[in-house]
Design goal:
Chains A, B: Belongs to the acyl-CoA oxidase family. Chains A, B: One of its GO terms (biological process) is fatty acid beta-oxidation using acyl-CoA oxidase. The structure is a homodimer of 752-residue chains. By secondary structure, chain A is of the alpha+beta class. Chain A folds into three domains: 121 residues, no CATH class; 249 residues, Butyryl-CoA Dehydrogenase, subunit A, domain 2 (Beta Barrel), CATH 2.40.110; 335 residues, Butyryl-CoA Dehydrogenase, subunit A, domain 3 (Up-down Bundle), CATH 1.20.140. In chain A, 57% of the residues lie in helices and 8% in strands. The first copy, chain A, has 33 helices and eleven strands. In chain A, the strands form three sheets. In chain A, strands 1, 2, 3, 5, 6 and 9 form a six-stranded mixed sheet that branches. Chain A has a three-stranded antiparallel sheet with strand order 4-8-7, with no helix packed on it. The first copy, chain A, has a two-stranded antiparallel ribbon with strand order 10-11. Chain A is elongated, with a radius of gyration of 34 Å. Chains A and B meet through helix 7, helix 8, helix 16, helix 18 and helix 19 of A and helix 7, helix 8, helix 16, helix 18 and helix 19 of B.
């Protein structure tokens, strides 16, 4: 029966029995099709039907022959696009089938197969576009590292060399007592290296270098994050609270021993019932006139100090925040140094320590609860920079408002909100280094007949990781800017800097949360094994979104600061400021909303820095003005301010986010402008474009609602994001290598 | 100097020294303002200036007097809205200040203060709107539980009673050996209760009830998730692979002992180098004609079996997937029962077991690696339902294509993709129960002078948790639907059901990931403590997005299935189907895109089920057609299918998601239609509306791009989502209580 008429139907037969999962229903479809072919004889039809009988499959040899026949016939015929084309090729033109094309097309549809795909199976493999992409080095990695490290390169190098020593091998014990002790020992080594006291005044043995202190925090974060948090509690929270809230006598008494870790200590602010709303702390410090002492007391169980780092095991002293009471009068929250343990580690009388126990992460840090049962401390233990009790037992302060004083005190501690986001950023860099290196090596699937392809060549995988890589670079420069503003601060800028720090803390820690989540999933099962460290990175940083201020609460503060600034800028414009502003804004918006702009989609425009920044600024301004109007309207309608702010909470997050994104983009752009090396500039520009466009894409709903962009443009942006991911992919490994994380810190077997 | 002229300026003085954080710059602003007041005498100006001298603050008593003066003057005067209004009230109208209004307004602006807010400080507290919301019971909780449990109520009740026994107290040891043994012991108890063999045929001691088996998996997931996974490995993966891939002789030999846990076993498919692409597995099973045996062999290290549950410690046997080789010919991947350990737990010759070690979660499951060094097994150990080697040593199979056979085999194992998403859903329910109960009790901040307010009263907190609550209900009914389709499956539906299972597995596990993340953050520091169980829930379910098929890969499969269905529906429409479809679609779109509809924002419309479903269906259809067109275009342009599919990967995720969301919404709506009790129906409807609108809000960028909605409508939807959250808040605690999770399972101290 092997005539050429029959031969023409081999592709169909092969199709039935090949890899495609045809169902019994589709078998019958094919049987009907064959039966309907009037140009075949009944015998020929019978023969073909016998070959699509589900209970009587062809032999493997037969299948192999069919395949080879087809391959021979269509070899190198690129014109072949459908099953019908194969049929024609196989029939050697001796069969009159030209009228059957529609029937075959219908069959392809009925079977739900894509002719083009099917044909791939038979073709000699051309090079796959997807398979062709690979890692390349198009720029000098070290030049990027130098830009990232900037003026802190020396201290970064020193810290890296310390944490790469053998004694910093990661602790693998799941016993939290062992882990806590290891972390303590590490802290001691760092103290001995004079890294802990870096920020303290030189006269107390310190390095008097706050910039270096932040760089230390960030670099340590390439290593175990329990270490950086324990380090931060001891030298940052505990030491800096003494330095910022105390006076000379406290510096002389404590700073040197804090810096050397001779006095491990705590920062005891949070209470069980008061975390975000610290103004409401309930611990009391009652002044005793008779012997000039304070009695520190926990009035009820829920007023105990909670989550206090260094409390459960090592802390010998604590800066305790408590309401100062003199003669029954409450003078608001103030700070006191309270001893917790003797030098042998025995808990002192009146102190009750609890252990927070096992946590989601950071189990190398001994968080605990502290309760005070009428603990008496000498008067000199009050940290008295902003308030004191005089010899007559009277309260004195240059800041009469209790709240204002308290917030001034908190303001001096803003450094924590710089250290934490920088630590979070470092963790994101570690995660991305592991995930991107792995994705460059891990192969899975591939073109039919070809080798498997690195998973980083897949568009979804690029989409999952590369915008995060771009964002990490962007946030890096945003945090550099925050640090520099803090280091060069003047009194009048403090509120803005505090808001920026609160905002960048939230932006960076949320970003890290998202990045490490994606890294975990992108590494599949390997990402779940603790040996590959994404577990530790992710779970340790999980609390970063909560401590040093809950992100959601902080974002509300940032938004309130923006609203206040907004009102001030009206003031400066004069009484009719608002009207002018609205008019100006409308005019700008009209200019930018010119249909030629809202629909502009050429590459040059989409990749233009100015377009990006304008779009970010427009969003920032518009959302802010809209929130301000809405709050005013709600209050005019009779709502209390507290209620009005609650109604707009969701919008306030956008106000803060739009502000932060603009700052981050702007700082990234300013940094790039200063870069001279062409190749370096080129790749940083691409990352900047990817950051800008992927943020716009994320916010496209807003831009479309606002009318700033039309659908044609947001769609073009989506495509451009895909394209940028594809273009950056060959440089991705070099870009994570530029973070220059010590291999001993990365440690993940999959990242080698 | 206390004349009434001066008195009028008290509000300003108070403002300077009050809680607002005025900067030195703002002090000078105020000083300039005072100096400019021509209606005051030089002495009066001097006096006022002396009261805004930063180096000479007023006494606390003075401040208190000022405050009380202000309060007395403005008491109950609701007309007072600005600082100027207070000034007027205080001046007793005897000061000619009417011309100063603009100056005061400018001052308010310059200082960046909101007069309205400031005034709240002085007013007698009215009831706060925000503070007034509280938990209520508006419906019968048990009625909802009955709807959720449905026909499985009896088995659910039984499982809950078992896991509430004292021996199921959570394991708190961090020693993974202890934990693994505890989980094993729990599995033994469940086996003794005849819960493990629930799905097996009655003749082998089973319950022959697959519906109950799924309900058991789901209910066990309220307890330790290592337990449910170990249980699933033993009774699901290991047992069901024997049942689905083996024949009578295997059932008789193994099923009873698997069901009783006498033979702990493994499901050994994944290899280090092949996870998603299991078609490429490299382990070999070579047939030996001489003694009718197979030699199981691991050709190189990266072909070892990896992540295999039950392998590291307990497994005595495994279903091993390996390429069958006969006479040098490769017959594709088949399954074989291979002994690993003797009954004393000693590893057998030729077997090398590795331990995956510590993982991010599920540390009660002993995952391991397995290597085979020429391990010989008898011929009867081949699970031969779909393929076998006959007495002559020839390969036989009713499915000649190797790939098709393999995918048919995998298809019989689809049950795992039902058990896992149901388990994930249960974990989300636990997390939400903990977070919502806590948010209802946890108080923080409050109206000035009032008590602190439950954090669930804050709009952001509602936004964070309540759409997730609605989604959890929605997914519940989606998974009920999936289960029911699986239980009532016919051969011709299998591909669709497999796609639905793959999709719902991804949708549910990603949803759980997001929900538990939000729950952790919403519980702040408490959410970080292991005692509150979000740690375990979150880290244990983390791998759910990877195992039983990586979600991203599964979503591509779902999308391909939708594309195939799409092509078939063309087929059914005839050769000109595509043209007709496009025409029909355009017509529908034109009707629905009528400006009256795209801009319709009345409540009735926004809350209308029909509107929701139409919007979901429109999205599903449009995205699918657009992806189909795009792939066709890319292939027409000369791209290989493999490359074309890579280019659209990102869009394929949307294709799959839009399909799943439509299914979930539809099933939720169908369920509600059947509810008769009015109160029950009412609250479920609200949840359904919240699910529908929050998904539309999430996808608003798409709806705006498509033109299906205009900005006015998406904005109205955002407001409606806020409103629904506010409306559902009093019922939130009852809605999580309706999940009816045993208190001993919840166990979190904060959820009591």
């Amino acid at each position: 029966m092997e005539n050429s008429k029959i031969k023409a139907f081999i592709p169909l037969l092969y199709l039935v029995w090949s890899d495609d999962l045809l169902t019994p229903k589709e078998f019958s479809t094919l049987q009907e099709f064959i039966t309907s072919l009037t140009l075949l004889s009944p015998e020929e039809i019978q023969f073909l039907l016998s070959k699509v009988d589900i209970s009587n499959p062809p032999s493997r040899n037969e299948l192999t022959e069919w395949k080879s026949d087809i391959e021979k016939s269509i070899k190198d015929k690129s014109s072949i696009k459908s099953i019908f084309d194969i049929v024609v090729a196989l029939s050697d033109k001796d069969l009159n089938i030209s009228g059957l094309e529609l029937k075959f097309t219908k069959l392809e549809n009925d079977l739900g197969v894509l002719g083009e795909e099917l044909i791939q199976n038979f073709k000699t493999k051309a090079d796959s576009f997807t398979a062709s992409s690979q890692t390349n080095t198009n720029f000098d990695v070290q030049k990027i590292t130098e830009i990232l490290d900037g003026t802190e390169a020396a201290i970064i190098k020193k810290v890296k060399s310390v944490i790469s020593r053998p004694e910093f091998a990661y602790e693998t014990s799941t016993d939290i007592n062992v882990y806590r002790q290891t972390v303590y020992n590490w802290c001691k080594i760092l103290a001995d290296e004079n890294l802990g006291n870096m920020a303290y005044p030189k006269q107390y043995g310190g390095g008097e270098n706050i910039a270096d202190y932040f760089a230390i925090m960030e670099t340590l974060s390439y290593h175990d994050l329990s270490l950086v948090i324990k380090f931060g509690v001891q030298f940052g929270l505990w030491g800096m609270s003494v330095q910022s809230l105390g006076t000379e006598k406290h510096y002389a008494k404590y700073l040197k021993d804090i810096g050397s870790l001779k006095i491990p200590g705590c920062f005891a602010m949070t209470e069980t019932h008061h975390g975000s709303n610290v103004k409401g702390l309930e611990t009391t410090a009652t002044y005793n006139h008779n012997d000039q002492t304070f009695t520190i007391h926990t009035p009820h169980e829920k007023a105990q100090k909670e989550y206090i780092g260094n409390a459960a095991v090592h802390g010998q002293m604590a800066t305790v925040f408590a309401k100062l009471i003199i003669d029954g009068h409450d003078y608001g929250v103030n700070a006191f140094v309270v001893p917790l343990r003797d030098t042998n580690g025995n808990v002192l009388n009146g102190i009750t320590i609890g252990d927070c126990g096992h946590k989601m992460g950071l189990n190398g840090v001994d968080n605990g609860t502290i309760r005070f049962d009428n603990v008496v401390i000498p008067k000199e233990n009050m940290l008295d920079r902003f308030a004191s009790v005089n010899d007559k037992g009277e309260f004195e302060s240059p800041i009469p408002s209790d709240n204002r004083r308290f917030f001034t005190m908190l303001g001096t501690l803003v450094g924590g909100r710089i250290g934490i986001p920088r630590s979070a950023l470092a963790a994101a860099k570690s995660g991305l280094t592991i995930a991107i290196r792995y994705s460059d090596q891990r192969r899975q699937f591939g073109p039919e007949g070809g080798s498997e392809v690195p998973i980083l060549n897949y568009r979804m995988h690029q989409r999952r990781l590369l915008p995060h890589l771009a964002k990490t670079y962007a946030v890096h420069f945003g945090l550099q800017y925050l640090t520099s503003r803090f280091l060069n601060r003047t009194e009048s800028e403090m509120q803005d800097i505090e808001a920026l720090a609160a905002g960048m803390k939230s932006y960076s820690t949320w970003s890290t949360r998202d990045i490490l989540q994606e890294c975990r999933e992108a590494c599949g099962g390997k990402g779940y094994l603790s040996e590959n460290r994404i577990n530790a990175l992710k779970n340790d940083t999980e609390i970063y979104t909560t401590f040093e201020g809950d992100n959601t609460v902080l974002m509300q503060l940032v938004a309130k600061n923006r609203l206040a600034e907004f009102r001030k800028s009206f003031g400066e414009m004069g009484s009719f400021g608002i009207i002018n502003y609205v008019y100006e804004n409308a005019r700008t918006a009209i200019a930018e909303k010119n249909p030629i702009i809202t629909r502009k989609t050429d590459d040059e425009h989409l990749l233009d820095n100015q377009f990006h920044l304008q779009a970010f600024v427009h969003r920032e301004k518009t959302i802010l003005a809209s929130a301000a109007r809405r709050i005013k309207k709600l209050i005019d309608e009779g709502l209390e301010a507290y209620d009005a702010f609650n109604v707009v909470q969701h919008q306030m997050i956008d106000v803060a986010e739009a502000y932060l994104e603009r700052v981050v983009l702007e700082q990234f752009q300013i940094t790039i402008e200063k870069v001279e090396d062409v190749k370096t500039k080129e790749i940083l520009l691409k990352l900047n474009q990817l950051y800008a466009l992927s943020q716009i894409e994320k916010n496209k709903g807003w831009y479309l609602e606002d009318g700033y962009m039309e659908a044609v443009k947001t769609k073009a942006i989506r495509k451009m994001v895909n394209q940028l991911c594809w273009d950056i992919r060959p440089d991705a490994v070099s870009l994570v290598n530029a973070f220059d994380i010590p291999e001993s810190c990365l440690a993940a077997p999959i990242a080698v």
